[in-house]
Amino acid sequence: MSIKPILSTGLNSSPIQEHNLNEKQLRVAVLTSKCGGLEIIASAIKEALQNRFPLAHILTGGKHDELVDSLLPTGSWGLAIHRKAAEKQEFRYMAVALKLGRQFASWKEADMQGKLDAYIREFNPHLIVSAAPLINSALLRAAASYNIPVLTVTADMDNSLYSHHWPTTPLAPHRYIIPYFCQEIVNTIHPGVDKTKVLALGYPIRPEFSRDVAIEERQQLRQELFVPEGKKLILLMVGGSLGSQGNYAYVKEIIALDRPAHYVVLCGRQEAMKQALEKLLQDMGFTEEVDGHKKRFIKGALSFDIQGFRKDVHKFYSIARCIITKPGPGTFNEALVQKVPLLLDDTAGHIPWEGMNIGFAEQYGLGKGIFNLREIGSALDEMLTDATHEKYLQALTTFREERPGQFHFRDNLQNAAVEILEEARAIVLSPPVEKTKESCCITAKKVAIFILKVLCFPFIQLHHFFTEWLPKKIIQFAFFSAFILAKDSVLSN
Fold it and tell me: Are residues 223 and 332 in the same domain?
């Protein structure tokens, strides 16, 4: 798809000189929420900034996250309900709650701005990086009072929550960061956002996902991860950070389909789900094979590996044929970087702001949506057949090649931070404009107009009384009197 470039994709990467910026005194606030994968994004942002400014103080986590959660329309209890609704797949409720939340955010903006103003005065940051939705309008207004630069890092393809109610008033130096330069993403940004301030810098993923893995290393990983010789690996992650029952339904369907492959199911911290899946496989007659701490279940051409929480998930990506997952942004973008085709689960619906990822993947050929479990058989056939699988790999390669420089988030964010700090410093250090005769005349004119309005106020009100208020009252009185007279006439007859 050809898109006319209207966004910035390159930055000035020249470093700040030490005499221009005292790194030891630099304070950077990273604001995000404890909801879903935003904590992982905040961690990637912190790592990138700490790498560029080793001596700086990165303010994140703890009370900084609690501040954001308190600013959101429903507070911390609303986030708890959000997690529960996602786990129970109550997506209709979440859609209604989202509409109400957007409205409440608009109503509470003045209150949010006051809290953010107090936060800025308490911690006095030199730079604020926001990876939270719904608060950015209030944050920009608060930061403008102190000329503190702001980087807004969006975590979703759908940007409507991050640019919600974008202010039209003059702002401090700021940049609006999206993952990729695609018109579909640009169309979701509030029209009030200055497009010259928008940067396509990539998605904030952990560094280990960005590393290319050689063929020899992949073979070693297959042995390390206990993958049967010659079998293709399918990765299941249908639950995400908020959890759901999706993995169980998919495993049952895959057993019934009997498509030969090695299926690795990542259950995260859902220990009950892990135990339930292992019991299901045992009940279905799978044989358990153990090698030290490694375990897999085999029956004919099918094999399963049921895993809990793992920090080295990137190893599975490196050798996966495809990933079956929810359309959440974390796994979605990790797969794009690793060039792994996606099968995006939509059998029970999706979180409102994540639905765009399904259409996005299908439009660019990066994967496809699964809207009914009966579709998983044909989808797996595509991924396990070399010819059709190669088409998805080529589409993933093309997507990356058409966006050079947009898959290096860490370097790009560092350059953006340097650039915006320089811009803010230049504003602070610029000499005040000297008063001229012309500016003094303009000020005197404004004062004279104000005094004239004050003196004329009684006459204006008197004019309003005789031309608008009094005629209106006379007409109302005449109409009411005519109605009473007509009513008495009818009754007397």
Answer: yes
